[in-house]
Amino acid sequence: MGIPVLELAEVAGIVVAALAAMAGLTVVVARMLRPRDDGALKLAELARLQADASTRLEAMRDLLAGRQAELARMVNERLDSVSHHLGQSMQASRQQTSDSLQKLNERLAVIDRAQKNIGELASQVTSLQSVLTNKQQRGAFGQGRMEIIVQDGLPKGCYQFQHTLSNRSRPDCAIFLPDQRPLIIDAKFPLEAVTALREARTEEERKQAAARVRQDVTRHVGDIAQKYLIRGETQDLALMFVPSESVYLDLHDGFDDVVQRALRAQVVIVSPSLLMLAINVIQQIQKDARMREAADRIHAEVGHLMDDLKRMHERVLKLQQHFGQANEDVRQILISAEKIEKRGARIADVEFGDDGADEGAANLIAGPVLRRLEAGE
Fold it and tell me: Is residue 357 pLDDT above 50, yes or no?
């Protein structure tokens, strides 16, 4: 937004011309001041030059005044334009700054909510850690998770928690199969040994932690096989529920010998996902058993229905015979009625001489007719 270069050049030319004129005037005055004989001529020339210089100076002053006014006007216009553009720029910048601050406040609110959620999650993790540190609470946690899976997958009456067996032992859960022998599920959580194995730094620490894991899992398997596998009372297989997928994977990845030993002891180690799969299989088995029972009842009812149908067929045949006999009786009655009608017509056609003779003749004729009617002809 500067002053145009052309206008500045014009002003500079005018100033240079004015300076040149002043210099020329100075030279002339200096020449005129030299001592010569023609003094009057010099004074006249000096007066003319002075008048000419005055005219030029006046013209230059007017020109400079006009140029100065034009320059001031242009500078004011440029300043107004710059002020306007600067105001618009500041307004846009202020709006952008306001929008940015609003978005920043929204982001900060989201960050605050996320930080609050993280704090709550941290407190929950701390609470869970404190729960898992205590053995009793850890056992209750595993049993609670197992109970939720069983309750979600099976109807009531098909299972019982803390069921008492004949040897006075009480497993965590007993699921009753169609043969009424319960499938035993017991929750175990060897977290301390697995945690020690994960936190081991040296080879010696890992060996000690691995030995502890084998010892704990083997002890749990032995307890389940000894207490909850009763021949003839329970199923030949029991489930050891580990309420952690990671612990289950650690056992199967690094302790296959322990898993195989548990299988030989008729104890299957299951994770939450495998327990849900087992519950679904048990649900299908119970459904098939109910369908078989229903099929047996349906078969018995069909047999009873066939017996009823046979008796109904016999009764319909008897009813048909009765209808046939009734039809025959009706036919015989119609025949007898026709005969009676014919004989009555013949009797009506007979003429008698007197009343006594008429009565005797009537008795003579009606007697055989009545006898034949009584005989059923």
Answer: no
User: Is pLDDT of 45 > 70?
Assistant: yes
The pTM (predicted TM-score) of the whole model is 0.46
Q: Which two tokens stand for residue 280?
A: 């679904």
| Pair 50, 22: CB distance under 8 Å | no
The pLDDT value given to residue 164: 86
CA distance 198 to 274: 24
Cα–Cα distance for residue pair 227/219, rounded to 1 Å: 12
Q: SS3 for the chain, per residue?
A: CCCCHHHHHHHHHHHHHHHHHHHHHHHHHHHHCCCCCCHHHHHHHHHHHHHHHHHHHHHHHHHHHHHHHHHHHHHHHHHHHHHHHHHHHHHHHHHHHHHHHHHHHHHHHHHHHHHHHHHHHHHHHHHHHHHHHCHHHHHHHHHHHHHHHHHHHCCCCCEEECCCCCCCCCCCEEEECCCCCEEEEEECCCHHHHHHHHCCCCHHHHHHHHHHHHHHHHHHHHHHHHHHCCCCCCCCCEEEECCCHHHHHHHHHHCHHHHHHHHHCCEEEECHHHHHHHHHHHHHHHHHHHHHHHHHHHHHHHHHHHHHHHHHHHHHHHHHHHHHHHHHHHHHHHHHHHHHHHHHHHHHHCCCCCHHHHHHHHHHHHHHHHHHHHHCC
pLDDT digit string, tens, across residues 62-72: 888 888 888 88
CATH of the structural domain 139-270, one choice from 3.40.1350, 1.10.3470, 3.30.420, 3.40.50: 3.40.1350
Task: Report the DSSP pairing between strands 238-241 and 182-187.
Answer: parallel
